[in-house]
Amino acid sequence: MFKQDKKPTHILFSDDDTDDALLFTQATDLLTSPVLLSFAEDGEQLMRYLSKGVLPDMIFLDLNMPVKNGLECLAEIRNEKNLDWLPVIVYTTSDNPKDIETCHELKANLYVVKPTSFEAIIRTLKKILLIDFKHQEFPSMKNFLLRID
User: Fold this and answer.
1) Which residues are CB-contacts of 133 (< 8 A; sequence separation ≥ 6)?
2) pLDDT higher than 80, residue 1
3) Are 11 and 56 in contact (CB under 8 A)?
């Protein structure tokens, strides 16, 4: 049970994989911190959601989405004055060094290779929810990649 005075962390989960969205939802249900989840199935849907004015506390962004991919969305978010502060956690299956480097250059806050077990998803979420992105300096490449398996 959550304390009534604890405001939920609003996460916008942007990924076209319904299985990943379901696992992410189930994992957040098991956390002790309250989480409010919103979803976008592609990059255009994500950008439309962000244009409506009710902004999340953070975005979990897949790179491989239809219509508009995660890199395009990340660049667009960082180029918008009213969105550039928003923490963006790249949450993807890609461990390609070029993808990691590009996301770092585009100023994502964190790069997470999707965990392979349900328990690792929970551990990853717990770790991320402890980060104070508002007061954290932009991470060096050494602290940019998070992989928990």
Assistant:
1) 58, 87, 109
2) no
3) yes
Cβ atoms of 104 and 112 within 8 Å: the answer is no
| pTM exceeds 0.90 | yes
6: number of Cβ within 10 Å: 10
- Which tens digit of pLDDT belongs to each residue from 44-75? 999 999 999 889 999 999 999 989 999 999 99
d(CA 14, CA 145): 19
All residues at 6 or more sequence positions from 147 whose CB lies less than 8 Å from its CB, including other chains: 95, 112, 113, 115
State the Rg of the chain over Cα: 14
Cβ neighbours of residue 15 closer than 8 Å, sequence gap 6 or more:
21, 24, 41, 60, 61, 62, 65, 91
